[in-house]
Structure formats: structure tokens, C-alpha cells
Amino acid sequence: MPENQDKNQPIAVTAKDLPLHCPMPDAPLWARHPRVFLDVLKTGDAACPYCGAKYHFTGERPTGHH
Fold first, then answer.
1. Listed residue (44, 65, 64) closest to 54, CA to CA
2. Fewest CB within 10 angstroms: 8, 21, 61, 65, which?
3. Domain Zinc finger CHCC-type, which positions (predicted)?
């Protein structure tokens, strides 16, 4: 999660961020926890069970295997 990210606002992710996992690669060291993969394509939203970060898928959905 970016350092200036409001925890109440979802983090926008796109097809380039898939497969989605938390923490994201740009998360600061203090915000790291075990990596967990999240299915953001099912409903368009996902939340991390460790830190509560909320993610929202935007843009064009990927084609191919689901």
C-alpha cells in the first residue's frame, strides 16, 4: 500500500497488477506481511485478510483463462 494511501479508500488495480497479491511490490518495509493472493476479478473488489487493505479492479478485464 502506498504510504499516503487512505486505508478507507480502495487501491485501484488493473490487469497489469494481476495476479493481485498483498502487500504490493511498492509497499514500504514496515507495511509488509505474508503474501496473500486476492481474487479481485470475481466481484471487482477484494480485501486483504492481514492488513485490511481494500482493492478495486478498474479498466478492461483480461481475456483468456479465468
1. 44
2. 65
3. 32-55
Type of residue at 45: D
Mean pLDDT (whole number) for 43-62: 96
Residue type, 26: D
Q: Which residue has the cell 497479491?
A: 21
CA trace torsion 37, 14, 3, 10 (10° rounding): -80
- Read off the pTM: 0.81
CB 48 within 8 A of CB 32: no
Q: Tell me how crowded residue 55 is: count the other CB atoms within 10 A of its CB.
A: 20
Report d(CA 4, CA 6) in Å as an integer: 6
